[in-house]
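Q: I'm writing up a methods section and want to include an example of the input and output format. Could you take the sequence below and give the corresponding predicted structure tokens, formatted cleanly so I can copy it straight into the document?
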Amino acid sequence: MAAEAEAEARASPVGAFPSLRSPLQEMKAEYEYVVIGSGYGGSVTACRLAEKGHSVCLLERGREHLPGTFPETLTEAATELRFHASKGTKGGLLERFTTYVQNERGLYDIRRFKEVTVVQGNGLGGTSLINANVVIQPEPLVFQDKVWPAPLAEELQNGTFQKVYMQRALNALSANPYPSGSSAKYPELSKVNALSRLVDKAGEVPNPNFPDKPPLGASFELTDIAVSFETRQHKTSGVEQLPCNLCGNCVSGCNVGAKNVLGNNYLATAKAHGAEIFSECAVKHLSALGDGGADGWIVHLDLLQTEDEQFKDDDGHPPDFWVKAKNVFVCAGSLGSTEILLRSREAGLEGLSPQLGQRFSGNGDSYAMSIRQESGFIAGYGLTADEVAVTPAEKRPGPCITSVAKVGFGGGDIEDLIDAFVVEDAVAPVPGAPAEKLLARGVEDRTQTFLVMSHDQQRKGSAAPPEDFGTMTLSTQGNINIEWEKVGDLPAYHTANEWMKAASNKAFGEGHFHENMVWKLPVGDAATDGSITVHPLGGCSMGADQTSGVVDHRGRVFREGGEDAVFAGLFVSDGSVAPRSVGINPL
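A: Here is the clean output for your methods example:
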């Protein structure tokens, strides 16, 4: 048995998963549809269009990363860093950086703005490459907000979204709960027990905002995650996937092949139905052909595969490159899609909504740690393949997130949402563990990290105005910039922080709680009032018309010229269209 476990721990899927990208030389001059971005929005869009027989070209800025090729050490991860700090970021260790550093094609895309830090994936499959695999439905109260356009609100409120579309996503991503205690291979996890203890103490925690009122109610459950727990043949690619080995390195990239990233499902299906997929193609801006895109679109590109001499001019620079499309789906994520449309406006695309760049939300994300717990061992850090081989299953961390606590959802009114939040158990992967271990100071085996998601608007209730959220603009260098003064002081962050501190002290002992960690890091202004998010939303938010949104409920981009005026063949389909936070892990 020990030999089998060691063999499984060291099993490498390098070469087992087929490449999905096509050589740039095969890109045609024109397609029926060009899809920009390969995250959840872009992958689903490309998949469904290709299944219908359309001519589809998908463009991804980052590289292709297959299982077995992800960084396993801090040194390796450093070479995959794509970091950018905006001008105006002052103080701390990051003061010197005002432009992109390290690898423009790096996997870990970190954007540091004056008040907000965003972490996202940069590669074929988008942030699915480095997320925590969670597939969870938003609370129904979120959809009572009048900010959602009426046609969509009806589907959100009558359950069609949850019963039909969300179920399709669950099936496509092969999402399932961690099989806790089902076998010796998958025992109960120490970090899950830690979060459960936190919930058990909820009744003893005073209401952070109204001490004279009953405590906030809390529930606990194992959540669906897109991870395989058995050896199986993938239904689209035919590749044999290995089961999860509980190493805990989901968010640095799964080298086991157990994580159901988008390359294993939607992208593989799109490729199987004829979609052509190109990586290392950064979209600069769009140009409309004819009146409002009536004759199609030109997608202007930067080719990042500069080592290919075929795509260099006599001076060694990549030439201007473009592709034509009848229809364009912009699916580059909150920052990327907003940036592309803002650049397009600067390049001459007239008629875009004045709401472009408004309603940025960090989804109420925050992080906390409970250190030196008095309640026993916790496996809170990722393991290398060598460590997995000699570590019993019950001492391994398990998938990055496996359980969720829902706090404060007892009310039935949308005004109650601002006091509600979710807490998830989390694991720091091997490349990212050194920073957290520095905070833990020698008690890593009794330290638990928590991820919190809430609702980051200034006031309670429905249809909060744009000024309640962050604003995205272009810098003088043409890069996205986010401004959100004193975002860290929003009510949601302090409600969650105060509850977490009190519950942690009750469950694990006094004095061992570290609040929202970005407040404690030497990163300039963020050290006092900033936020960090792995779930950026908004910027191209949907609305009833151009005065309230950038796109309609179908993702069609509004155009000046009347209540129902839209650009021909131009769509946005990703998290940028969300007009508010969703308070859980958005896909």
